[in-house]
Design brief:
The structure is a single chain. This protein folds into 3 domains: 121 residues, no CATH class; 136 residues, HUPs (Rossmann fold, 3-Layer(aba) Sandwich); 106 residues, no CATH class. It is 39% helix and 12% strand. It has a 5-stranded parallel β-sheet with strand order 3-2-1-4-5. A 5-stranded parallel β-sheet has the order 8-7-6-9-10, with helices on both faces. The radius of gyration is 21 Å and the shape is globular.
Length: 421
């Protein structure tokens, strides 16, 4: 059992148990073995006019606590080398409001990270910042990562006459790209770019399945600056990556997280509604492939200019900020460009051809994709999908089946073009 405590500095226990880890919110405890979450951020938000509701603020504190736990809890110490059993003691401002949603949140975290969570809510969090609030001019929130899908999402919202407030999670490789896209699409004052600021000594768990919760926390916090009573938070992600079907039997998750899986989003929406956080989460492209998103983008001139500059690679840092060309996200990206009628792929890939690429360390993604394509071709798409659509309602299922079938066809075209099939 991994035990983690997240608390304000003044509620930090004088002594920690031998197996316990601790983090303090927004201020360093200056104590050996105690980590810090988002140092000085509380004061910064107050100065910038943030005055979120207690419910919104506690959602932020909860998400940051999960992210800190996810980073410090090593999967290698678990019995199977992956699945962790975690007890998280999370300090909130108003814990009683969250207590009825304890089981729902534990299930939500299991969907996201694959681990077994036990949550303990305490009143050791901080109160919300009390800045001088003035509503911003934007009418919705849209996540902006620096990737192709989020760029298309922003382009489409602006083309439709919407005024999105863009929210980014700081990423060293994409920070300037995020700022450039946000300024281009929304102008000055239409972008928040934050980091969870989690720091501690010791090894870090690299899988970071829970990291996306910080992104949602930032989005919900940004939405609190809008004047609308129930603003929409747009999560622009193509349907193939949303559902993330296992490419081969036994490969439980081919991509990095279940960040945008419709089941996870529906559970998250249910919790937000239950505790009184008034936002609407929207997956506008859940029935579209990446190639369809490119072809249907409402601003083709800008897409043509910017598409190859976006970031998709799952190993971008490994290859010195260059797309590898052979990880699953890169292959989906290359397949989308192949399907796009608007222009050529000018992206610089370490391995521009799958057939001639050397096998890098880690999973052999081209082989997994090839096996998935062959299974769908020889045995039918339903055999490939297996139970991947069990989450979907009966009316939705044909739409998800179609996007996954179309996604496999886009990948098949890529593999055929590279001479791998």
């Amino acid at each position: 059992m991994i035990k983690v405590i997240c608390t304000s500095v003044d509620r930090l226990p004088a002594q920690l148990g031998e197996s316990e880890r601790a983090f303090t919110y927004f201020k360093s405890a200056r104590r050996e073995g105690v980590g810090t979450i988002a140092k000085s951020w509380h004061g910064s938000l107050k100065r910038k006019g943030f005055r979120p509701s207690p419910e919104t603020w506690d959602f932020v504190q909860f998400c940051l606590a999960v992210c800190a736990t996810d980073l410090c809890a090593l999967r290698s110490t678990s019995s199977d080398g992956w699945t962790r059993t975690i007890e998280l003691n999370v300090g909130l401002f108003d814990p009683m409001r969250w207590e009825p949603w304890k089981t729902e949140l534990e299930q939500l975290l299991k969907v996201l990270t694959g681990d077994y969570w036990t949550l303990i809510f305490t009143d050791a969090g901080l109160p919300p910042p009390q800045g001088r609030f003035t509503a911003k001019d934007q009418d919705c929130v849209s996540l902006l990562s620096g990737g192709l899908d989020s760029l298309i999402g922003g382009l489409n919202l602006v083309a439709q006459g919407r005024r999105p407030l863009f929210v980014s999670q700081l990423a060293h490789e994409d920070s300037q790209r995020q700022r450039d896209y946000a300024h281009l699409l929304g102008g000055a004052g239409a972008h928040y770019q934050w980091s969870h600021g989690i720091s501690f000594k010791g090894p870090r768990e690299p899988s970071t399945r829970g990291r996306s919760l910080a992104f949602y926390a930032f989005a919900v916090l940004a939405a609190s600056r809008l004047g609308a009573p129930r603003p929409t938070v747009f999560i622009p992600e193509n349907g193939f990556i949303c559902v993330n079907p296992p490419l081969v039997p036994g490969r439980v998750s081919s991509l990095s997280t279940r960040t945008t899986h419709p089941l996870f989003i529906s559970k998250l929406q249910r919790v937000l509604d239950g505790v009184g956080v008034s936002v609407q989460l929207e997956l506008p492209y859940r029935y579209k492939t990446k190639g369809q998103m490119m072809n249907e983008c409402l601003d083709q001139p800008r897409l043509l200019r910017l598409a190859s500059d976006t970031t998709s690679c799952g190993r971008f840092r490994t290859y010195n900020r260059t797309h590898c060309g052979r990880c699953v996200p890169c292959m989906i990206r290359r397949a989308a460009f192949t399907a796009w009628t608007g222009g050529a792929d000018q992206t610089d890939y370490v391995y521009p051809n799958l057939k001639t690429s050397e096998k890098s360390s880690g999973p052999d993604d081209p082989m997994a994709v090839a096996l998935a394509v062959l299974t769908a071709r020889e045995k039918g798409i339903d055999r490939f999908l297996g139970a991947s659509l069990a989450f979907a309602s009966v009316p939705e299922r044909p739409h998800y089946r179609a996007v996954l079938s179309n996604g496999i066809q886009e990948l098949e075209a890529l593999l055929t073009g590279d001479g791998l099939l």
